């Protein structure tokens, strides 16, 4: 029996079947029968099912963002490569070229991606134009947050939520919880969104008992207490439920491997492809204009607040204030060649050496001077959260307009907000998007690149 407005009950088995069809059909087409095809089918079927259940590959909902689907496809594809190669490593006597195996994996994941996004967007169009796959919802409590949710439901019909009523418990002659529950049953409502701030503990218990006994879905909107607005991590110690203050995706072993592999590949490409020939040319120009080293190194705070030396091409005349005062617009310490390399962000390229060493990542919160880190840690709330992950050459805050000189307290506050969002919502697709946005901004030129 499927619940009203829900297609996941049969969409997921169909998706499993389609994906496994591509896996086995393309294997037969590309490898023929010159290898143990039956063993391949059994092994890949089991491996794919286990991998998908572990990674949540088919846990896609109407509110899932396209970027999250891309991230799932990326992670699934990387592990799938290893699974397929492990099979042909065991049956190495059949001597199938690695290029053919890579081509097979690429075709499989491309077909799966097309089907996945096809279903995702077709359902959106189905909800928008035909009114199908609809979830009936009500909101309990009237305040600023529930009003934003009401506007979200109204402005985004593609998600398939139809708001029937918002109940207000505070005004005189307002609805009671019992009337709300009766309305839910009479109108066959699917989901209830309740504001924590609007209900007493007694009402919350009564509401939970009601939804459990009537197969309704209950979701809560956090109140103004900050703990409820965090991305909490829920786990069990034995049978005891434990909440952690935040979940950091990069801490998961697979994600850590993917991010480090991305860092190594990109840093090697830049070091070999660009720095190998740019460094001598740029070094000569730097030396001709002013005495001093080609590279400038400065202590910064990185992962777990540990200090490391961050490298740059020297863009200023050597001065004792470099570690104390941040550069400002029209700063007289900047050389002529320095202005050019700072404007184009070329001065940051040596930091790919830091990435290769493991002190930094390509994408992450930008590291500050040690003196500034101490100052901001005392003044700015949650500033230290940025040090849960490696600092980056570029970051979400930088491509969102918060790069360069910190000219106001609101600037650093917003930078921290973007850094924490990145930390809690990391994906490989997000990293790639930030890298391309950084390149685009550098080519276009940025106002605060001085």
Automatic annotation (TrEMBL):
Q: State one molecular function term (GO).
A: phosphotransferase activity, for other substituted phosphate groups
Gene Ontology CC terms, in alphabetical order: membrane
State the compartments where it is located: Membrane
Q: Where are the transmembrane segments?
A: 12-31, 37-57, 77-94, 100-123, 264-286
What keywords are assigned to this protein? Membrane, Transferase, Transmembrane, Transmembrane helix
- Give the primary localization class: membrane
* Transferase listed as a keyword: yes
Bacterial sugar transferase domain location, by residue?
A: 259-443
Q: How does it sit in the membrane?
A: Multi-pass membrane protein
Pfam families, per database record: Bac_transf
* Entry similarity comment: Belongs to the bacterial sugar transferase family.
Q: What protein is this chain from?
A: Putative colanic acid biosysnthesis UDP-glucose lipid carrier transferase
Q: What organism is listed for this UniProt entry?
A: Aequorivita viscosa
């Amino acid at each position: 029996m499927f619940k009203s407005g829900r297609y996941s009950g049969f969409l997921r088995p169909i998706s499993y079947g389609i994906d496994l069809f591509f896996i086995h059909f393309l294997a037969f087409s590309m490898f023929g029968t010159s290898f143990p095809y039956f063993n391949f089918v059994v092994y890949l079927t089991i491996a794919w099912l286990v991998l998908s259940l572990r990674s949540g590959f088919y846990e896609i909902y109407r509110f899932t963002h396209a970027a999250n689907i891309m991230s799932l496809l990326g992670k699934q594809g990387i592990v799938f490569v290893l699974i397929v190669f492990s099979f042909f490593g065991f049956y190495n006597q059949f001597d199938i070229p690695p290029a053919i195996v890579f081509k097979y994996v690429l075709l499989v994941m491309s077909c799966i991606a097309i089907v996945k996004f096809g279903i995702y967007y077709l359902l959106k169009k189905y909800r928008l134009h035909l009114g199908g796959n609809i979830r009936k919802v009500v909101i309990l409590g009237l305040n600023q947050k529930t009003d934003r949710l009401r506007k979200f439901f109204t402005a985004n019909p593609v998600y398939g939520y139809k708001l029937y009523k918002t109940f207000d418990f505070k005004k005189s002659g307002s609805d009671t919880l019992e009337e709300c529950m009766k309305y839910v049953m009479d109108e066959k409502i699917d989901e209830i969104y309740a504001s924590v701030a609007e209900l007493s503990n007694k009402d919350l218990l009564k509401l939970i008992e009601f939804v459990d006994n009537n197969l309704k879905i209950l979701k809560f909107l956090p109140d103004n207490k900050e703990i409820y607005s965090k991305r909490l991590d829920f786990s069990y110690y034995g049978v005891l439920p434990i909440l952690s203050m935040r979940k950091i995706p990069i801490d998961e072993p697979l994600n850590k491997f993917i991010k480090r592999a991305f860092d190594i590949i990109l840093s090697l490409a830049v070091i070999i492809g660009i720095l190998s020939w740019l460094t001598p040319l740029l070094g000569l120009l730097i030396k001709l204009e002013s005495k001093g080293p080609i590279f400038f190194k400065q202590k910064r705070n990185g992962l777990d607040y540990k200090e490391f030396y961050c490298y740059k091409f020297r863009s200023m005349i050597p001065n004792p204030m470099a570690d104390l005062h941040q550069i400002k617009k029209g700063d007289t310490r900047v050389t002529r060649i320095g202005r050019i390399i700072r404007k184009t962000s070329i001065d940051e390229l040596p930091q790919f050496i830091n990435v290769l060493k493991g002190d930094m990542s390509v994408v992450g919160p930008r590291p500050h001077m040690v003196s500034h880190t101490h100052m901001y840690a005392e003044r700015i709330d949650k500033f230290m959260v940025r040090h849960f992950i490696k600092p980056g050459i570029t970051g979400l805050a930088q491509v969102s307009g918060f790069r360069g000189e910190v000219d106001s307290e609101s600037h650093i506050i917003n930078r921290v907000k973007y850094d924490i969002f990145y930390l809690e919502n990391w994906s490989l697709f997000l990293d790639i998007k930030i890298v391309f946005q950084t390149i685009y901004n550098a080519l276009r030129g940025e106002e605060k690149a001085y």
